[in-house]
Structure formats: C-alpha cells, structure tokens
Amino acid sequence: MLQPKLKCHPSIEKLTGSSQLTTCRVISARVIGSHAELLGAYLRMPADARGSDAFASGGIAASLDLKTGRILAAKKKYEDETLTSHPRTQEPFGGVEVAYAKDAFTACRAVHDALAGIDELLVPVVGFDVAIAEDGYWFMEANCPCDVQFQKLGVPYGSDPTYVRCVQSYLAPLQSRSRIAVDPILRKPVASG
Q: Is residue 144 helix, strand or coil?
C-alpha cells in the first residue's frame, strides 16, 4: 500500500513546537432514522519533545467549538488544571481556530450517515481520527464504537442529551422485547414494569 507523507499544518506546528502530525478526534452520534450529530471534538497534540499526540500518553486534548473549530479549553490527562497556553511554546490556546476543522466536522457527519446506510444498527457512535495536515484534513480511521469516556473538560459525553437520545433509540427495540431496561447514563440494567 502506498500512502502520501502528510505534514503537520504550519499553524499547529507553531502552536505545539512540533512537526509531528496531529489529529482531531471527532465524535458523532446518530439516532436511528435521522442524520448524525456531533457530540464533540478535540485536538490531540504533543505536550513535549517526545511528540506523542495521544492523550493517554501525556499529550494535550483541547476541546473544539463545533460551530467555529476554535479551541475552547485544553488539558492533560489526570490533571485538573485547564491549560491556557501550550507548555512547550507558551503559545496561547484561547480562540485559536484549527485549520480545516469545520470542513472535517461536516465530512465526519456525512461519513457517519454513509456508514449507517450499510447497517444502521452497527454505528450509533463513531469516533473519527482526522489528521490536520498542511494541505487539508485526512481521515486516519473511524472507531465504531468509540470510547466516549473522554470528557468535554468536566462534562462526560455519557450525560450529553444527544448521546442519551442516540443510545435510547438503539435500546428501544431491545427493551420492547425484554423486561430489562438499561439506563443509558449508568449503563446498568434496571427492572422494568
């Protein structure tokens, strides 16, 4: 397989001080019979010279505004403090618009709808990893299902109304055939009447 070599977008390289390709995780949810909606998006970037953009490996995750593609807030895993600037470069995060983010958001919703056209029941929630390169956005992978445990800086996706409607739409057909219901937030079975 041949693949092009992607280069980090210059604005992100300036922000992070690293030429490593960074990715956005874009999470979409789809209620059965409707179009995909975005639950959230965040830019993953390296925090230091080690260069990993993985949040779990010490990278930084910055929540993105779903309308503008601008950075809202950023933090490192296991740290309560919200970062106002990149620890390596001291470049401020506030209001930085991530190149191609809005176009990537639109494309993620369209791809989620297309995946649902193959088998609607298999894709309630998708986590897209989208690289932000100098020449545009590139899909790296789609995670079905994806981990929705990442919090929108304090608000778990599991309590997001869009996520709850999505889960309920997939559980409703199952609940009608069973005396057991599943609480979508607690993710535990509860007795039903």
A: coil
